[in-house]
């Protein structure tokens, strides 16, 4: 069964010098980054190495990922969060329907009703290393083996006005602007040991959640692909990623209510794709949200 997952996941292109044009654009609300949280550690790139949030854990199949590289440096921006123009920010780009070939959120609702329902397995044996090295490019998910770390792939896809660190072959994002889908905040990102953690990469279905709902039986290759699958990854504000922890739909939803249909539909489709089960409370929460989506 697990080899089926790998064959179904197309590889990304082999070029490293690019910036993916798909951007998640949100409505502005509130945020100041807080990254210290139990079970999480931050590396020099601002990447969580723990998994209280499914690791500093979107989503897009390779068919919809287009690339470009900007050769001209742009004026750096200071790392900060804007709460202004709350109702004037550009609308969120909804992509889950395209990513998973759905006609509407009703399809996700139907799929949610048919997910396997079971209790959580013991968390015994869980550790981030079970899913490979953080953001390892050596994986069989879309964008794998393209020469850039998965974190950089997602930053390039989800940020706008991206500039690149010199002499990194167009991989390392130096600056950019995130319209955070979870909060609606506009986050000004700048690469650096003290600033990168302002923007983190969230696993929509957290790694720790997957571990207690089916991933323990996967091969190492499948777990590595899951941890780096862009369909399950989103760039978000660091503080909200820490707040989410390893929560599922029953225990956590994005503060930005406009994004909840997209978020829950993506959780449903990722779990369906990888054969993960849900708890009874989780399925009920998924259905409750998706019944309100048009």
From TrEMBL:
Bias kind Low complexity: ranges: 48-80
InterPro entries: GmrSD_C (IPR011089)
Alphabetical keyword list: Membrane, Transmembrane, Transmembrane helix
Keyword Plastid annotated: no
UniProt domain GmrSD restriction endonucleases C-terminal: residue ranges: 150-288
Transmembrane regions listed in the UniProt entry: 20-39
NADP found in the keyword field: no
Stretches for region Disordered: 48-85
Protein name per its UniProtKB record: GmrSD restriction endonucleases C-terminal domain-containing protein
């Amino acid at each position: 069964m697990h080899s089926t997952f790998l064959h179904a996941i197309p590889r990304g292109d082999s070029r490293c010098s690019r910036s993916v044009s798909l951007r998640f654009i949100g409505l502005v609300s509130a945020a100041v980054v807080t990254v210290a949280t139990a079970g999480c550690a931050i590396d020099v790139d601002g990447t969580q190495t723990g998994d209280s949030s499914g690791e500093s854990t979107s989503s897009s199949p390779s068919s919809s990922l287009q690339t470009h590289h900007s050769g001209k440096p742009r004026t750096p921006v200071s790392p900060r969060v804007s709460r202004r123009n709350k109702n004037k920010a550009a609308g969120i780009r909804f992509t889950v329907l395209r990513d998973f070939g759905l006609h509407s959120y009703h399809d996700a609702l139907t799929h949610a009703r048919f997910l396997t329902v079971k209790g959580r397995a013991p968390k015994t044996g869980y550790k981030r290393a079970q899913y490979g090295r953080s953001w390892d490019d050596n994986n069989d998910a879309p964008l794998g083996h393209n020469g850039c770390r998965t974190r950089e792939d997602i930053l390039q896809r989800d940020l706008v006005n991206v500039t690149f660190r010199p002499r990194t072959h167009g991989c390392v994002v130096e600056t950019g602007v995130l319209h955070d889908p979870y909060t609606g905040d506009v986050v000004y990102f700048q690469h650096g040991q003290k600033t990168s953690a302002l923007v983190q990469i969230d696993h929509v279905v957290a790694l720790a959640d997957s571990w207690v709902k089916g991933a323990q039986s996967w091969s190492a290759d499948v777990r590595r692909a899951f941890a780096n699958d862009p369909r399950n990854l989103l760039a978000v504000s660091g503080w909200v990623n820490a707040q989410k922890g390893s929560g599922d739909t029953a225990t956590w939803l994005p503060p930005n209510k406009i994004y909840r249909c997209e978020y829950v539909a993506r959780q449903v489709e990722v779990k369906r794709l990888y054969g993960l089960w849900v708890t009874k409370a989780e399925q009920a929460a998924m259905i409750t949200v998706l019944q309100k989506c048009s």
